[in-house]
Please model this.
Amino acid sequence: MLTRVGSLLASIVLSLAAGSDHEYVDDTIHVDLPVAWTLEGGAGEYRLESTGAEVASLLLLPPDSERTLLERLADIEEQFLSTGLIRLEAAESRRENGEEILYRRYRLVMAGTEEEEGDPEKEEAASILLHQYSFSRGGLQVLLQVETDPGPMPPEDLAFRIFHTLEIRKAPDPFTWVDPLAEADSAGPDADREP
Model:
């Protein structure tokens, strides 16, 4: 009797745990999300929204033959810091299941709140935290960034659910951008003339 009650409780716990997340599948990824999160997008670029105030982005970076991963991550960080509104507050490396996760926390102070500078309480109230998690999966670099209100706890539930369940089904195409003005310039001034 006691064994049956134990197995019944175990099955209830397992069914509740199974209902606590939902999966997202497309041609590129398969991932289980916490129940409070939804994901949309495709081809390696995704936006996540929660039932709360948090939003996130998930980006898969295919290998680049011209630049190393560290150079690419440094470029992304330089773009952040060059705004003058985003500051790096913390950076650390963690090990999870023998894999490295790079974590960075940035503070975004909203434009127009310059008068809050120097007052830590007002500045914190007028800012957003950007939690960035970076790890490798299936030969790709995964970049998850979660925006939250200032608070003591980072959004570890989402980050570690994605870390533990993300499966790469197909690598996205490398990101390419062609400047239309550069193409027109390379054609030369006589490109519109017929021979």
User: Anything to note?
Assistant: The first helix runs from residue 2 to 18. The first strand starts at residue 21 and ends at 25. The mean pLDDT is 77. The helical segments are 2-18, 69-81, 120-125, 156-165, 180-187.
